[in-house]
Hints:
The chain is of the alpha/beta class. 37% of the residues lie in helices and 23% in strands. The protein contains 11 helices and 9 strands.
Amino acid sequence: MITQVENPILEIHDLTVSYDQNPVLWNVDLSLPAGNLVGILGPNGAGKSTLIKSIMGLIPPTSGYVKIFDKPLNDVRARISYVPQRESVDWNFPASVLDVVMMGTYGKLGLFRRPGKKEKDLAMRSLEQVGMTGFAKRQISELSGGQQQRVFIARALAQEADLYLMDEPFAGVDMATETAIFQLLKDMASAGKTVIVVHHDIHSAMNFFDWLIMLNLHLVASGPKETVMNEEMLRKTYGGKLNLLTRVTDLIRQKDFNPLKG
Ligand SMILES: Nc1ncnc2c1ncn2[C@@H]1O[C@H](COP(=O)(O)OP(=O)(O)OP(=O)(O)O)[C@@H](O)[C@H]1O
């Protein structure tokens, strides 16, 4: 079940991606409209991070192509913000929280301008949005995992991009913060940005995302949440992981659960 759209903000055509000549993503064809909060769901090893990395041009495709805003990635890089998984970053790098968030503003500054008051204000506003203002002068190495994650999201906000790609931004973040940041991302999507998030929890995915990409080495589904979140698609995505499926399909059947709301 794959919904294709006209004038997509992101178009992926026949994308196959391999590590050491072994394909881990096969023939992915999808397109996304602007102004959506998009969740990428799938079991461990499904290729979710690989998909994000290949959209960002970090892994060359074996076949196929990606177009963003109808252009190749290199023409539009400044309009894209990427939040990698927290574990993939060296957090012992000596930098303050404010420095890290200010880095988000550099792309728009150009080569020879140094960040000034405008950039600092933007960075502070971004920290405020993730509830981290009080930590601005702290070293990033001194923060908890969840706090580091929030700083990373603030850096992405300071980038003022049009397309955001976030790889498990909620790993290690507490529930209250997750809900607050989801709301923030939803507001960004309502303002016309496209936010794509690799996410593990199907329950919160049903509440928060507008559009879901369901992946298991192949693309199982891509479309508005209400059209793709059903038992058949979950079974195709998660296969025999029946405990999980039972829990989720029970949730879908619950009278008070309405996947259209939220
Ligand atoms: N650098 C790499 N070299 C070789 N194989 C890799 C590499 N990175 C990922 N893989 C393999 O590619 C497959 C897809 O990995 P990927 O990290 O994209 O999955 P994922 O859906 O993000 O998983 P998770 O939910 O566990 O983070 C896995 O089988 C993984 O072992």
